[in-house]
Design goal:
Elements: H1 3-21, H2 26-31, H3 33-60, H4 69-78, H5 84-102, H6 109-131
Helix pairs in contact: 1-3, 1-6, 3-4, 3-5, 3-6, 4-5, 5-6
């Protein structure tokens, strides 16, 4: 397997592991500090792995090198690998990851739970399909 396939396998493994520990509702997520911390850590790992995949896809397609991690999604947008909506959602996920990772201010647990429960998996799976081609 190549580096892109390895990264996709890593992302899919992290998504499965996150789905297996995510509480069914917000109240349990918020009150179970261990699960909340574990879910936040998986968000970090998934978004970092997706960023790595973005850089691999850019290199593989010989697109311009991005200025930073967020710019990687702009490069893929410019290269017509992903669309505007997905690029925006991935940049938001990267921003959320940075907030969790660096503890910038207070983390809004409800926003994080909703993102994990409803958006992250969908967006990352869509990204994997498009970037992995």
């Amino acid at each position: 397997m190549g580096r892109i396939e390895d990264k996709i396998s890593e992302i899919n493994r992290y998504l499965r592991e996150l789905e297996s520990i995510l509480p069914p509702g917000f109240e349990e997520y918020q009150s179970n500090l261990e699960k909340k911390a574990a879910c936040e850590r998986y968000v970090e790992k998934i978004v970092e792995a997706a960023t790595d995949l973005a850089f691999l896809a850019i290199k593989n397609r010989k697109l311009r090198m991005p200025d930073d991690d967020i710019d990687a999604f702009n490069v893929l947008l410019d290269g017509k690998i992903i669309d505007d909506g997905l690029a925006a959602r991935l940049k938001n996920a990267k921003g959320m990851r940075n907030i969790i990772s660096h503890q910038y201010g207070n983390i809004d647990d409800e926003i994080v739970f909703e993102a994990i429960d409803k958006e992250l998996s969908r967006d990352i799976k869509e990204f994997v399909k498009k970037a992995g081609r």
